[in-house]
Amino acid sequence: MGELEFSDKFLRTFGNGDVIFEEGSVGKHMYVVVSGRVEIRMKAGEGEAVVAALGKGELFGEMALVDSLPRSASAIAVGEDTSAVEIDHAQFAYLVGQQPAFALIILKALSLRLRKQMEINRGPAGQEKESRP
Questions:
Q1: What is the pLDDT at residue 130?
Q2: Three-state DSSP class for residue 125
Q3: What counts of helices (H) and strands (E) characterise the chain?
Q4: Bridge partner residues of 53 (DSSP)
Q5: At 111, which helix (H) or strand (E)?
Q6: pTM of the model
Q7: Which of 4, 70, 74 is nearest to 39 (CA)?
Q8: Which pLDDT score is estimated for 62?
């Protein structure tokens, strides 16, 4: 996150395979990866599909703080040295209100995810996929 600094008291450490949060759970925190990797996984049929692999400086979990809906995916630590800054809703609201740089980082992350999904929906040769009722 570059220009923003956080106290170590907000730092959480995870082991390989640790579940940071589960799809469908109530979201009370968002995270910024400090070290290691985090996979974002969604249920797909009988298993799970990795929809994103995140590294240092990338954030996740913010959607639940923005829209107050259940988590749309699970977050799993990959590797033994994964750590992330944990930000609760009160801290999130404060940062968005008091730190314009933080609000812009959140907006950029959401925008990039939306663009990625739009590209997936567009499919091959820039054609929209058919919507199915």
A1: 55
A2: helix
A3: 3, 6
A4: 39
A5: helix 100-122
A6: 0.81
A7: 74
A8: 93
